[in-house]
Design brief:
Helix content: 10-25%
CATH class of the largest domain: Alpha Beta
Shape: globular
Largest sheet: 5 strands, mixed
CATH topology of the largest domain: Rossmann fold
CATH architecture of the largest domain: 3-Layer(aba) Sandwich
Number of domains: 2
Low-confidence stretches: 189-193
Order of helices and strands: HEEHEEEEEHEEEEE
Length: about 190
């Protein structure tokens, strides 16, 4: 959210400059039946073609640069493919997801994340891990790093009364990048260098 979260422009530009594939979130109506307990809207990741494609994104109603909904069916997506959509290579795996949040905490080497309350990222990650695991029995064997992006003021110390609520479907983070350049990792429970 402009003004309320870490801006990712420099990250996207760097990723393209070193030859990375870049995907951005896209929210759409769910093909999963709400009667089966599925949400009415879900998130997928849509691939950007290049830096010019990124620069052509237009702000949505929250000011977030977004893919034009009229072009989504022409773009590779990670999960949801309609009959006329272009599919990503089935072997395309994400290796890093940078996640926004309202607040984060750091307790006993674990990093908690409080999102905006809709569960878009958590539900996407769950579905992605199941798909990526394929015939593998254990989705945790997929090498996917989850890092939060936060301003220092969004980090709670994790002491009682200063923790974000975490539910059973919430995904734990591998790390947290703060606006001042500090990187906390769940593995070391100390700032990374």
């Amino acid at each position: 959210m402009p003004g309320g979260e870490i801006q990712t422009d420099a990250i996207v530009r760097h990723a393209f400059s070193v030859g990375k594939h870049v995907f951005v979130p896209y929210l759409h109506r769910s093909s999963i039946s709400a009667m089966d307990g599925g949400p009415s809207r879900v998130m997928d990741m849509v691939q950007l073609r290049d830096l010019a494609d990124y620069e052509a994104l237009t702000p949505d109603r929250w000011g977030i640069p977004s893919v034009n909904p009229d072009t989504v069916h022409l773009r590779p997506r990670i999960l949801d493919h309609g009959p006329d959509s272009e599919s990503t290579d089935p072997d395309t795996l994400l290796d890093l997801i940078l996640m926004p949040g309202v607040a984060f905490d750091f307790e006993d080497g674990a990093i908690g994340r409080l999102g905006h309350g809709k569960g878009f990222y958590d539900f996407f990650i769950h579905r992605y891990l199941v798909k990526a695991a394929g015939s593998q029995a254990d989705p945790s064997s997929i090498n996917l790093l989850l890092y939060g992006l936060a301003l220092k003021e969004q980090l709670l110390d994790g002491t009682p009364g200063h923790q974000v609520p975490v539910g059973p479907l919430d995904q734990g983070l591998h790390g947290l990048v703060l606006g001042d350049g500090t990187i906390l990792t769940a593995r070391t429970a100390k700032p990374a260098t």
